[in-house]
Design brief:
With about 70 residues, the protein is mostly helical. It has a domain at about 5-20 and about 25-55. The chain has helices at about 5-20, 30-55.
Length: about 70
């Protein structure tokens, strides 16, 4: 389950970075917060989508090394 404190901190940091990128304008805190929330939601949707594509996590690796006869470990 997501940690609300961690989510809020991540959004707060993103809003701060947006504020810095815009040159530290006064009176735009709400706009920066909303933009940070929107970006966080987009990030979450992307991460959720990537997780769905890689399910199940127990898939075998796409490459399995081939051992030659007589050259194995041991």
């Amino acid at each position: 389950m997501p940690d609300p404190d961690t989510d809020e901190q991540r959004i707060r940091e993103r809003a701060y970075l947006l504020w810095l990128e815009e040159g530290c304008p006064e009176g735009r805190a709400e706009a920066h917060w909303e933009a940070a929330c929107r970006q966080d939601a987009e990030r979450e949707a992307y991460v959720d989508g990537e997780g769905a594509e890689s399910f199940p996590a127990s898939d075998p690796p796409s490459h399995t090394p081939v051992m030659r006869a007589g050259r194995g470990a041991g």
